[in-house]
Amino acid sequence: MKAFMKWISDSFAPKMQKIVRNPWMAALSSAMQKIIPFILVGASIFLYNVLRSYIQALPDLGKIADYSFGMLGLLIAFMMTNQLMEKLRHPGYMVSAGLTAICVFMMFINPTFDDNGMMTVAFGRFGPTGIIVGIIAGIFVGFIFNMFGKLKLLRDSNLPVFVVEWINNIFPIITSIGLTALLTFKFKLDIFDLIIKAFSPIQSFGQTLPGFILIVFIMTFFYSLGISAWFWSALTTPIYMAGISANIDAAAQGLPATNIVTIETVFTAALITMGGVGATLGLNLLMLFSKSRDLKTIGKISILPSIFNINEPLMFSAPVVMNPFLMLPLWINAITGPVVIWTVMKSGLLNIPDKMVYVGQIPAPFSRVMITQDLRAIIVFLVLLGIYLLTWYPFFKVYEKEKLKEEELEETTSPIGA
Question: Is the pLDDT of residue 233 over 70?
Answer without folding.
Answer: yes
